[in-house]
Amino acid sequence: MPGSARISFNSVDSSLSSLKNCQSYINTGMEIATHVALDLVESFNDVEDVNSMENVMLEYAAMDRELNHYMTAIEETVNQIKREKPENIPDLKYLVNEKFTALESKNTDSDLQKNEKYIYFKDQVKEMRKQCK
């Protein structure tokens, strides 16, 4: 179209795809932390070490939440720009950061404890403790 800016989102799409791959690394880390905690309960029943693994799980849950918020911010911004088809190319970094900050501002610590893999971790540790008594 003459007179309107044409924006290509190929590099953004590629970067989003890479970010989605990072989610699999977070999931793998959470699985490993769960297995380590279960081994600790089974072998030593060391509460302090198991609690350390629980903290690791919470850190992974925080990374997962942050990554999801960032990807949501990118996707929403790109979709908005595609819908609106602005005449001038907007500052994508600023718009994404604005959406990301809004999403992150709603975070609470209790959100992390609602993470599906964290809940699974807690249940598995609880079951293993019952078995090892």
Automatic annotation (TrEMBL):
GO terms for biological process: double-strand break repair via homologous recombination; protein sumoylation. It comes from the Eukaryota. GO terms for molecular function: ligase activity; SUMO ligase activity. Pathway: Protein modification; protein sumoylation. Keywords: Ligase, Nucleus, Transferase, Ubl conjugation pathway. It is found in: Nucleus. The keyword Ribonucleoprotein does not apply. The keyword Transmembrane does not apply. GO terms for cellular component: nucleus; Smc5-Smc6 complex. InterPro entries: Nse2(Mms21). This is NSE2 ligase. The lineage of its organism: Eukaryota, Metazoa, Chordata, Craniata, Vertebrata. The gene is Nsmce2.
